[in-house]
Specification:
alpha+beta; Coagulation Factor XIII, Chain A, domain 1; seven-stranded mixed β-sheet; transport; ABC transporter ATP-binding protein; Rossmann fold; 442 residues; AAA+_ATPase; binds adenosine-5'-triphosphate
Length: 442
C-alpha cells in the first residue's frame, strides 16, 4: 500500500447532500463556477506499508483512527481517494457483521451466494457446504432468513464462510469479540490453522494483549496517519503510551478515549460477564462453559475420558477462585500395552497461547509399562495463580515408540474454565506473581 488517503465528504445537514448532487451541474449550466456543499474529512492520510505473504499483521489505533477504513480499502469495498493498494490472491473479510450477506435470503442461500462471490466453484461449494454449516453451529436457523439472526449467529455464519473459502488473505475486524469465549477460542484455533497453511492475516483489535499474542507485526494508526509499523511488541508499547498519555499531548487524547482497552492490555471480552462488583460467592459451575474447539488426536493405544476440574472437596467446578487449590483430572483407558508412559496437562489462553503445563513424571522416569485394559485416573493438583479470564485445558499421554517418546493420545481444548474476579486483586496480565508493592516518598 503506497500513499493511501481517504477523504469522506461531511455534510452539515442532509439537504446539503442533495445540493451537492444538483447544484454544481446547474451552476455549470449557468456558467457559474461550482461550489462545494460539504467539508472534507480525511480518515486516512498518506498511509504506506507492506504486508508479506503468510504474515499476521495487527492493526491498532484508538476509536476513529481509520482502521476500518484501511481494511475496507484493502478488501476493495472502498476506493482510496489517492494512493494505490496492491493485493494478490483471494481476500476474505470479516469487516462488519455479516457484510456481504443478503438479509432476505436464508443462511443456506447466503452460504452459496457469499461462497461464490469469494470465488468457490459450485462443486467446491457442494463439498464444503456441510462443513460450513457444522462450523457455524446455529442449529435450526440455517434455513431461516438471516434477518432473523442475532448478531452472534450472523457472525458465526460469516466467519464460517470466510474460513472455508481458504483465502490467501483473511481480514478480521474485531469480529472475534462477538460470541462467547468457547466460540472465540474455536475461531482463533481455525485462524491458526489458516496461518499454518500460509494465509496472510490482518487483524484489527482494540486489545493489545490479543495483538501481541497472535501477530508477528503491527501498524499503529492515529487520526488517519500511520504512527509506526514494526514488531507487534514495539508497536503495542507505543499504542499503550498513546492510550495512557496526557490529554492534549502531541497525538493523544485522554485515557477515557481509549475504547475498550484495559490497563493490562487484555480486552474485557476475555473477562467473566458482568461489570458490577464481582461476587466471590458466585456459583462454581457454569453450564455454559463448554469448549467448541476440542480436537482429538486419537490412537489405538489409549483414550482420555471425562477431563474436568474439581475442588479439593471433590466437587466438579469450572469457575475458579483466584489463589485456591484445585485438581485437574481425567481417566485414561489403555487398549494396548504401552511403555515409558507420562501424562500431561496444559492451560491455554483464548488465543491459544500455552500458559502453564505439567507432566506426571519427569523425563527419564516414566511409568515403565502399562498393561492393556488398564485404566488410570490422572490427577494434577495445582494452585490457581491465573488472573481473571477464560482458559482452556489440554490433556495428553506420551509413551515410547521404539526409542522415541511420542504422543499416544492428545486432546486439545478438552475442557474450559473461568477465573472469577477478585475486587481486591492488584495483579494484571495472565499470572499472579503475588507481587507486594511498596512505596517510599523521597
Ligand atoms: N462514511 C463516512 N463518512 C464520513 N466520515 C466517516 C465515514 N466512515 C468513517 N468516517 C470517519 O472516519 C474516521 C475513521 O473511521 P474508521 O471507522 O476507519 O475508524 P476505526 O479506527 O475503525 O474506529 P473504531 O475503532 O471506532 O471502529 C472516523 O472519524 C469516522 O467518523
Amino acid at each position: 500500500m503506497r500513499g493511501v488517503s481517504k477523504c469522506y465528504p461531511v455534510y452539515a445537514q442532509p439537504a446539503d447532500r442533495l445540493r451537492q448532487f444538483m447544484m454544481p451541474r446547474l451552476r455549470r449550466m449557468a456558467g457559474a463556477p461550482p461550489r462545494r456543499y460539504y467539508d472534507e474529512y480525511w480518515a486516512l492520510r498518506d498511509v504506506s506499508f507492506d504486508v508479506y505473504p503468510g504474515e499476521q499483521l495487527g492493526v491498532v489505533g484508538r476509536n476513529g483512527a481509520g482502521k476500518s477504513t484501511l481494511l475496507q480499502i484493502i478488501c476493495g469495498t472502498l476506493t482510496p481517494t489517492t494512493g494505490t493498494v496492491d493485493v494478490s490472491g483471494r481476500v476474505a473479510a470479516l469487516l462488519e457483521l455479516g457484510a456481504g450477506f443478503n438479509p432476505e435470503l436464508t443462511g443456506a442461500e447466503n452460504i452459496r451466494l457469499n461462497g461464490s462471490v469469494l470465488g468457490l466453484s459450485s462443486e467446491q461449494l457442494d463439498q464444503r457446504f456441510d462443513s460450513i454449516v457444522a462450523f457455524a453451529d446455529i442449529p435450526g436457523f440455517i434455513e431461516q432468513p438471516v434477518k432473523s439472526y442475532s448478531s452472534g449467529m450472523f457472525m458465526r455464519l460469516a466467519f464460517s464462510v470466510a474460513v472455508h473459502v481458504e483465502p490467501d488473505v483473511l481480514v478480521v475486524d474485531e469480529a472475534l469479540s462477538v460470541g462467547d469465549e468457547a466460540y472465540q477460542r474455536k475461531c482463533h484455533a481455525r485462524i491458526k490453522t489458516l496461518r499454518d497453511r500460509g494465509t496472510t492475516i490482518l487483524f484489527v483489535s482494540h486489545s493489545a494483549g490479543h495483538v501481541t499474542e497472535v501477530c508477528d507485526r503491527a501498524v499503529l494508526l492515529d487520526r488517519g496517519r500511520l504512527l509506526c509499523a514494526g514488531s507487534a511488541k514495539d508497536v503495542i508499547s507505543r499504542y499503550q503510551k498513546l492510550l495512557y498519555s496526557k490529554a492534549g499531548s502531541d497525538d493523544a487524547d485522554p485515557v477515557s478515549d481509549a475504547g475498550d482497552e484495559r490497563a493490562d492490555g487484555r480486552s474485557d471480552a476475555a473477562l467473566p460477564a458482568g461489570t458490577g462488583r464481582p461476587r466471590l460467592d458466585e456459583a462454581f459451575w457454569d453450564e455454559g462453559l463448554a469448549p467448541e474447539s476440542t480436537v482429538v488426536y486419537s490412537s489405538r493405544e489409549c483414550s482420555i475420558h471425562d477431563a474436568h476440574l474439581q475442588s479439593l472437596a471433590g466437587d466438579r467446578v469450572n469457575v475458579l477462585r483466584p489463589g485456591e487449590e484445585y485438581v485437574y483430572t481425567y481417566r485414561v483407558d489403555f487398549d494396548q500395552p504401552a511403555a515409558g508412559v507420562r501424562f500431561g496437562m496444559m492451560v491455554r489462553s483464548l488465543t491459544g497461547v500455552e500458559l502453564a503445563g505439567a507432566v506426571s513424571h519427569p523425563e527419564g522416569k516414566p511409568l515403565e509399562v502399562v498393561a492393556s485394559d488398564a485404566s488410570v485416573q490422572v490427577r494434577f493438583r495445582f494452585r490457581n495463580l491465573l488472573n481473571p479470564g477464560t482458559y482452556f485445558l489440554n490433556a495428553g499421554v506420551v509413551g515410547l515408540q521404539g526409542e522415541e517418546e511420542k504422543f499416544l493420545v492428545r486432546y486439545m481444548d478438552v475442557a474450559m474454565f473461568r477465573v472469577m474476579r477478585d475486587p481486591e486483586a492488584i495483579s494484571t496480565g495472565f499470572a499472579n506473581l503475588d507481587v507486594e508493592p511498596s512505596l517510599e516518598f523521597l
